[in-house]
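C-alpha cells for chain A. Residues wanted.
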C-alpha cells in the first residue's frame, strides 16, 4: 500500500480538493460528519487509490478514539496528517455573539484539531517521520471586525502549529501551517447558517481562491526535499491584501 495521508474535513471545500490532489500518490483516510458525502468521495477516489473513511464529529473525543481504534493495523501507519476540519460560525460584535457559535468554533477548530493530533502524533514520533499540515487562516494572523472568536480559534491554531514545531523537532517530523485568505467553499454558507445572499456577498466582486489553489500549495509543501520544511505560508487571491483590504469591482 502507498504511504497514508489522514485528512480531516474531507467532505467539502479545501479538504475535498486536498483529497483529490493527494489521491495520486497516497492512500487516504478521509474524515467528516456527512457519511453520504464520504461514501460518494470514496467511490470517486477509490479508482485512484486505497481509501478508508471515518465518520465522526470532531468535537466528540470518545468517538474519535473509537473510530481511530477501528482502523485495521495497516491503516494506522499514518505518514501525513492534514488538520483541515473547521468553520466559522456567525459574524457578530464581540458582545453580541451566540455562545453556541463560540463553543462550536473553539471545540471544532481548536480542540478537535488537538484530539486528532494526539492520536496520530505518537505514530509519527515512534516511526521518527511524518508531515503535519495545519490549516490556519489569515484570520489567525490579523483580527478583523466581527471576526473575534473565529480569529481567536485560528490564532490558537497558529500557536499550536508553532508549539508542534518546537515539541516535535527532535522527532524528525515536519510541521507546516497554511493560511488562506478568501477561498470559495461551503465556508461562508456555514458561517451565515445557510443564508446564500450573505454568503455570496463574501465573494462579491472578486475572484476568490479555489480550494484547488490551496490543495496545490499543500502538494508543493509535501513534495519538498527531505531537508526542507515550509514552516508557514499565507495565500491570498490577487484581489486581497489583508483581511480588510479587498479590491472589489
Ligand atoms: P467547508 O465548509 O467547505 O469545509 C469544512 C470541512 O470541515 C467539511 O469537510 C466539514 O465536514 C468539516 N467539519 C466541520 N465541522 C466539523 C465537525 N464538527 N466534525 C467533523 N468535521 C467537521 O470549508 P473550507 O473548506 O473552506 O474549510 C476548511 C478549513 O479551511 C477550515 O479550517 C477553515 O477555517 C479554513 N479556511 C477557510 C477559508 C475560506 O475562505 N474558505 C480561508 C482560510 C481558512 P462535515 O460537515 O461533513 O463534518
Ligand atoms: C477564512 C478567511 O477572512 O473569512 O478563514 O476569516 S476569513
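Reply:
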Amino acid at each position: 500500500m502507498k504511504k497514508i495521508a489522514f485528512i480531516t474535513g474531507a467532505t467539502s471545500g479545501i479538504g475535498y480538493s486536498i483529497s483529490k490532489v493527494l489521491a495520486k500518490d497516497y492512500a487516504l483516510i478521509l474524515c467528516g460528519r456527512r457519511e453520504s458525502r464520504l461514501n460518494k468521495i470514496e467511490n470517486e477516489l477509490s479508482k485512484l487509490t486505497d481509501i478508508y473513511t471515518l465518520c465522526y464529529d470532531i468535537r466528540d473525543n470518545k468517538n474519535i478514539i473509537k473510530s481511530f481504534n477501528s482502523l485495521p493495523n495497516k491503516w494506522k501507519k499514518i505518514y501525513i496528517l492534514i488538520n483541515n476540519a473547521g468553520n466559522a460560525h456567525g459574524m457578530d460584535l464581540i458582545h453580541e455573539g451566540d455562545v453556541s457559535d463560540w463553543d462550536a468554533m473553539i471545540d471544532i477548530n481548536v480542540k478537535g484539531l488537538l484530539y486528532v493530533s494526539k492520536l496520530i502524533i505518537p505514530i509519527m514520533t515512534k516511526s521518527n517521520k511524518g508531515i503535519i499540515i495545519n490549516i490556519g487562516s489569515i484570520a489567525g494572523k490579523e483580527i478583523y471586525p466581527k471576526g473575534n472568536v473565529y480569529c481567536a480559534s485560528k490564532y490558537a491554531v497558529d500557536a499550536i502549529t508553532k508549539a508542534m514545531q518546537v515539541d516535535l523537532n527532535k522527532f524528525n517530523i515536519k510541521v507546516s501551517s497554511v493560511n488562506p485568505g478568501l477561498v470559495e467553499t461551503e465556508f461562508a454558507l456555514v458561517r451565515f447558517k445557510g443564508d446564500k445572499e450573505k454568503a455570496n456577498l463574501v465573494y462579491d466582486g472578486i475572484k476568490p481562491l479555489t480550494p484547488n489553489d490551496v490543495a496545490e500549495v499543500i502538494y508543493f509543501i509535501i513534495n519538498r526535499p527531505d531537508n526542507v520544511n515550509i514552516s508557514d505560508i499565507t495565500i491570498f487571491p490577487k484581489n486581497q491584501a489583508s483581511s480588510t483590504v479587498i479590491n472589489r469591482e
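The pocket of 2-hydroxyethylsulfonic acid (ligand 2) is lined by residues 137-139, 147, 182, 243 (CB under 6 Å). Helices lie at 13-22, 35-45, 61-69, 99-127, 148-167, 187-191, 196-202, 211-222.
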